[in-house]
Amino acid sequence: MSEFITLSLFASTLHLSVPVILPMLGGLLCERSGVVNIGLEGMMLSGAFGAVVFSYLTGNPWLGLGGAVLSGLISGGMLAIMSVLLRGDQVISSTAINLIGAGLTAALVPIIWGIDGTTPSVPKIPTLPLPLLPQLPVIGPLLGELSMIDVLAFALVFIVWWVLMRTDVGLRLRACGESAAAADAAGIAVTRVRIAAVILSGVLAALGGAYLSIVTLDLFQASMTQGRGFLALAAMVFGKWRVGPAFLVCLGFGLADAVALRAQIFTDELPHDLLFALPYLLALVALATFVGRASGPADVGKPFRRA
Amino acid sequence: MSSKRPALPRRGTARLDPIIAEALDARNTTPLTLGAFAALTRDRARTLGARALVFVLTLGASMLCALPFLLLSGADLGVTARAFFIGSLGSQFALAETLVQMIPLLIAGLAVAFSFHGGLFNIGVEGQLIFGGLVAGVIGAKLDVSPALLTFLCLSGGIAGGAFAALIPALLKAYRGVHEVVTTIMINFVAVYVALYAVSPKGPFVSASQPSATDKIPRDARLSVIWEGTRLHSGLIVAVAAMIGVWWLLYRTPLGFRIRLMGANPGAALASGVSVARMTNSTLLISGGLGGLAGAVQVLGVYGRFFDAFSAGYGYDAIAVALLAALSPIAMIVSAFFFAMLDSGAVQMQAVAGISREMVGVVSGLVVAFVAIQPAIVHLSGRIQRGNRPPEADPSSTQSLPLASGENR
């Protein structure tokens, strides 16, 4: 057991939780502004795909990140048009994003590369070691496993929390989610705020997808996100739409994933396929036990129209 | 009792207030201009012609949006269209294959639509389908009883499996208020991994001769072929029976009325003494059972055994099937047939025109997108028709489907 719980288990926990944390942040911003977004999975897939395409075409993985941002802008923009501007049903609109994201990315792979399923490998983002930090006592070795990108991702958690809870912009955004009519009466452009939040959630989810495709791996595979967008959604609900708790839940999912992966290496006796269901089961159990009624933003899911 | 009441005509406008009756008459006799169409869809398209128009427009817009990607794959449009029709309707075999594809789509579409009628979104039909297929496959492989009984047991086992997969989301929604979309999706992934485990090399139900599958179900116990020389099996009868059953349940029974009442207005349902928790459970369990039935029929009719990748994403395409049919069980046979045509035509289109099969998923996503924005399109065209007068309050245009999203989250 002692060789099972090692530093690398925790390191892989952190690595595996990043692609859940980023879409979680996006979904949280989106729902706090009053728009249900179950389309995170499709946005992640389009981001993962956009990153690989740009990295493949330009040969520069950093431009790949730019491609992810671009595809996030597109998928977020689509959802914003459908659910905010045209006031379509938010759940159905974001389901459409999921279906289109999964279908289109898989359909474009053979168009670009001429092969089905998995793309050839493309340049991936180099893992830049961190300066100084690994020399720290106790947590130093753990930090040594992290690259610059991971640290940026974790910094985003703090930035989103700070913007949402400690700034004027965040207050406006939350007001739109709690009571769009009151926010409107106070002079906040509800539609504009919601559109911005939805597009931002697309970008964050797309970056989560890009982390999978050009940081962890170096290729795109049809439906490679394996439900992480939905896990992010569950983390957000379980964290009661607050950044800190939801972040911890994401770490929990990462740990469950890491345990499943390591168990596969270590022993043959455990049923691996069942272990891979662990994060999803964990999410169900969490939702079953702790979430109370009506803890989300009051106006989430309701299209807003000025009277 | 009822004989003392004056006889009222069952149809027509005699029951209504004269002013409303007049307005309805006027609306029904208006020629089908853009404005009339808008008014008709706003009333959720009361006439058959208008429903057909909405259907065709939604489909046409989705196909139009998918067109650039077809061109991107370098396909000749004429060749593609020919391949599509030859692949889906061109021969007896192609038509039978389309009908084979239609069976799971129809049943799964009914499952999605049923939950929508109750104001719930069962997005986990895929998982219920897998559970249902697994249970049916295991029962068929392990039990040793007479063929007819075995078929019955497999089908009911499949229904039970699907309902079981919907049980946890149902309870969580009814008693904890957890949004059913999140929980049913989680069950989808759990179902995939449970199915992988069940037929993995060390799994409990794996066949000795075939990896990743259960033992074969005895041939007599499978759903028999009803069109000689093709794969078309009697699952078609099961699907049509399910369709009629769902229609009857929704529109001719008290339970169906309560479910639709809850979907239209949970507050009103509660106020008139309907137990919303109980209705939530019934809705999701019946919906899940239908999903499980789709899986069982697929296992019994097409493959004769359960294997881990037996569902080609029917549960997800079913969302588009249900929404394209505007949730009407009877219209679903048309939308299911169309998506079945896409599925079976895709094989030919891939072979001849080099178009990826995944485009089917894109089309279903686009259909869902256009259904989502239907009220807005209707509203906009109504506004253009009226000129620039200020729009009157129009609550129906913001919500055309009985989905109380965001309520009770």
UniProtKB/TrEMBL annotation, chain A:
CDD domains reported for this sequence: TM_PBP1_transp_TpRbsC_like
GO CC terms of this entry: plasma membrane
Annotated localization: Cell membrane
Pfam short name (any one): BPD_transp_2
Membrane topology field: Multi-pass membrane protein
Superkingdom assignment: Bacteria
Main localization, broad class: membrane
Annotated transmembrane regions: 6-26, 38-57, 63-85, 97-115, 135-164, 195-214, 277-296
GO molecular function, one term: transmembrane transporter activity
Keyword line: Cell membrane, Membrane, Sugar transport, Transmembrane, Transmembrane helix, Transport
Protein name: Simple sugar transport system permease protein
The species this protein was found in: Actibacterium naphthalenivorans
UniProtKB/TrEMBL annotation, chain B:
Localization, UniProt: Cell membrane
PANTHER family: ABC TRANSPORTER, PERMEASE PROTEIN, GUANOSINE ABC TRANSPORTER PERMEASE PROTEIN NUPP
Region called Disordered, residue ranges: 384-409
Predominant subcellular localization, coarse grouping: membrane
Coiled coil: none
Name this protein carries in UniProt: Simple sugar transport system permease protein
GO molecular function: transmembrane transporter activity
Keywords attached to this entry: Cell membrane, Membrane, Sugar transport, Transmembrane, Transmembrane helix, Transport
Organism this protein belongs to: Actibacterium naphthalenivorans
Keyword DNA-binding listed: no
Pfam families reported for this sequence: BPD_transp_2
Membrane topology of the entry: Multi-pass membrane protein
Chain ranges passing through the membrane: 52-73, 93-116, 123-143, 149-172, 181-199, 232-250, 285-306, 318-339, 359-380
GO cellular component: plasma membrane
